[in-house]
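pasting Ribosome-associated protein for the record, 74 residues
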Amino acid sequence: MKEVIITEEPIALCNLLKLENLTASGGEAKYVIAEGMVRVNQNTETRKRKKIFAGDIVEFAGRQFRVQVRGPVT
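structre below
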């Protein structure tokens, strides 16, 4: 399972999909979420702004990844 590193939490689910280049745009990210194509922690998620925290597992388009938080590099 791939790890996705973010610098602060939470991150909106639609922003996470864009960050990982799983969708071409924010509009596409919101569409695939609204259509029930994304799962968070094994549950179908339709809330576009669902807050994602460290340890959450997101599944989309046959890919699965765990979110991790690491502080910004100073």
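The beta strands are 2-6, 11-12, 38-40, 43-44, 51-52, 57-60, 63-69.
Residues 2-69 form a domain with the Structural Genomics Hypothetical 15.5 Kd Protein In mrcA-pckA Intergenic Region; Chain A fold (CATH 3.10.290.10).
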